[in-house]
Design goal:
The complex is a heterodimer of chains A (about 290) and B (about 325). With about 290 residues, chain A is of the alpha/beta class. Chain A is built from twelve helices and ten strands. Chain B folds into three domains: about 130 residues, no CATH class; about 100 residues, no CATH class; about 70 residues. Chain B contains 13 helices and two strands. The chains are: A alpha/beta (about 290), B mainly alpha (about 325).
Chain lengths: ~290, ~325
């Protein structure tokens, strides 16, 4: 029943890496993602974020339990078949780019799903213009900078119009502008086209700004799963997985704001309120 | 079923990253031997295996190689079953070709039964094919004995000690180390193409998998080039060519030394080679040359052994004398 309303259905999933690692990277993980959600996956290194993301996109098949996308068990389909529905952007763009030019890179997926030629050209142009890389279409991807490579990797997946977009650490090693451009793109896709987005990241300030829901992983298990504000208010619990909410949130918590604030704007308003209140009470005393 | 799979993974049966060259780390007798000793051991082993015809000895050498890996290196055939599995069809093909093309006497079969068609298979051809196949297996297993028990960088060190320039010997060791990396890169490209709905990598049809691998070759090559450039830079940053350019003597963290076990193994394998090939010449070739060659081989080994023992005794005596002199001189002081 539940599998019909949920787009992604992770049920009691455990995953054991084969030797030489032999680590249970996931232990009894349960997770449901509904269509149209913007989810951030956070947690310390080695907490199982990437393994979970790879299980969702079918690169890894769960050792125990099941992962369903649209009610289809990932173990019963090929990864390449699932790729039409779930787009997975690798942690390292260099692992994803293998064609001779940016244009070929983006067109590759479209050729594979059998789009006619004129449509491919149109789509590639549309996608590359969206990420500001149409000018660089004839260059070898490795001639580009890291931020641009990351955008090529995302646009190559984007071109296939997946319903779910899983992005693994898109902001690592990027400057503020590039990181924001990527997150803005993800948000845009989520709002305008209804694409479900799952982002793995360590940048908490971006999480608090963009994500509606946060799933915190710790040692292969889900530690906290909930609305961003709800999750970031549990500062002590988060420290178990070495996650610290944005500084402004911690600062607000110290000031006793409840619920916690997520952005500087929110904090500003609350602080002004507080000052007003103090002033007001001070005036009353004086009178 | 799940439990079975988990057990399989825990036992290490799911060999995802096995390729041509796979060093299997351990601390067994064979692992501890010097690479130079192992080269001699394998050469001697192969000399006898290649010089003697017939499938009976070949069967023994094949089985002995497996037993050697099992007991002297603690590597069970489970770790390299893929190698044996690839070998089997080649052996079968050799047997079929040889028995179809060999001379008399023939064994005739009617096949299909009662159809009047008859197939004549050569009996000596069958055994010749079997012998060739087993010889191939022996050679392959001899390589496995060396490859699975020797760290690639020890090979380069051994080459360097024999007299190869360090750059070249390092290259050899590094090349062997690089093969699994390239394989990993291939898997990465496979995943990247699967992420873009490329079906050939997922298919079970060997031809389409082969096509996918061929398609992955250009990016694999560029990837390997990029990676090797980065590694070269990283090595240079840690002063790889400093010793050659500034004439400093290179020191080594790991050293390989010939120990007692090495000398004994070398002597035993040389003895095996000399006696084995000498026996062949003595018994299989009934002419003057055969006897002469056999006799020399037979006599050469004890002679060499005596010389080796004598020189080692002399060396030991010399060392003792020196020690004594040093002791006396220090006492006098």
């Amino acid at each position: 029943m539940s599998s019909q309303t949920n787009l992604v259905n992770v049920e009691n999933v455990s995953f054991l890496y084969p030797p030489p690692n032999r680590v249970w990277a996931l232990k009894n993980v349960n997770l449901n993602v509904e269509a149209g959600e913007f989810v951030a996956l956070i947690g310390q290194n080695g907490s199982g974020k990437t393994t979970l993301a790879k299980c969702i996109s079918g690169f890894l098949k769960p050792t125990k339990g099941s992962v369903r996308v649209h009610g289809i068990d990932t173990r019963r389909t090929h990864t390449s078949e699932l790729a039409k529905k779930v787009g997975y952007v690798f942690q390292n763009p260099d692992h994803q780019l293998f064609k001779e030019s940016v244009y070929d890179e983006v067109a590759f997926g479209l050729h594979n799903i059998g789009r006619p030629k004129d449509q491919i050209e149109k789509k590639v142009r549309e996608v590359l213009e969206r990420v500001n890389l149409w000018e660089a279409r004839d260059l070898h991807p490795f001639r580009l900078g890291k931020g641009q490579r990351q955008r090529v990797a995302i646009s190559a997946i984007l071109a296939m119009e997946p319903e779910i977009l899983v992005i693994d650490e898109p902001t690592t090693g990027q400057d503020r502008k590039e990181a924001r451009a990527i997150m803005d793109l993800a948000l845009d896709l989520n709002r305008k086209e209804g694409v479900t987005v799952v982002v793995i990241t360590h940048a908490m300030h971006l999480v608090s700004e963009y994500a509606k829901r946060v799933v915190t992983m710790c040692q292969g298990q889900v530690l906290i799963d909930g609305q961003t504000r709800e999750v970031f208010s549990q500062i002590d619990l988060l420290s178990h997985t070495f996650v610290q909410p944005p500084q402004i949130t911690v600062f607000g918590d110290k000031l006793g704001f409840n619920p916690v604030v997520l952005t500087i704007e929110e904090a500003k308003e609350k602080i002004l309120e507080l000052i007003d209140k103090k002033k007001g009470s001070g005036n009353r005393e004086r009178r | 079923m799940i439990r079975k799979k988990v057990q399989e993974i825990e036992r290490g049966d799911e060999s995802t990253l096995k390729f041509l060259y796979q060093y299997s780390a351990g601390n067994s007798f064979l692992h501890r031997l010097d690479p130079r000793t192992k080269i001699i051991l394998i050469l001697c082993y192969l000399v006898v295996a290649l010089i003697w015809p017939g499938y009976i000895l070949m069967t023994f050498t094949t089985i002995f190689a497996i037993l050697l890996l099992w007991f002297a290196a603690r590597i069970s055939p489970r770790e390299y079953w893929q190698f044996l599995a690839y070998l089997t069809p080649i052996m079968i093909a050799l047997i079929i070709i040889q028995s179809a093309s060999g001379g008399p006497p023939y064994l005739t079969f009617t096949f299909p039964p009662n159809s009047g068609f008859s197939i004549a298979l050569s009996e000596p051809g069958f055994f010749l094919g079997l012998a060739i196949g087993l010889r191939l297996a022996t050679m392959g297993l001899a390589f496995m004995i060396f490859a699975m028990t020797t760290d690639p960088f020890d090979i380069s060190l051994a080459l360097h000690k024999i007299g190869v320039a360090f750059k070249l010997s390092f290259l050899v060791g590094f090349m062997l180390r690089f093969l699994p990396l390239i394989q990993e890169e291939l898997f990465t490209i496979g995943d990247a193409s699967k992420a873009r709905a490329y079906k050939a990598m997922d298919s079970k049809n060997p031809i389409s998998i082969l096509r996918a691998i061929i398609a992955a070759m250009p990016p694999l090559a560029t990837g390997a080039l990029r990676r090797s450039q980065n590694i070269a830079l990283a090595m240079e940053l840690r002063g790889f060519s400093f010793p050659t350019e500034f004439g400093v003597k290179r020191t080594f963290l790991r050293d390989i030394k010939l120990g007692k076990a090495d000398y004994v193994t070398m002597a035993l394998s040389l003895g095996y080679a000399f006696l084995g090939s000498g026996l062949f010449f003595m018994t299989q070739r009934f002419d003057v040359f055969g006897y002469a060659a056999g006799l020399t081989m037979f006599l050469a080994f004890p002679l060499l052994a005596i010389i080796a023992l004598f020189t080692s005794y002399q060396r030991a005596a010399k060392r003792k004398r020196q020690e004594l002199q040093e002791k006396i001189s220090t006492e006098l002081e």
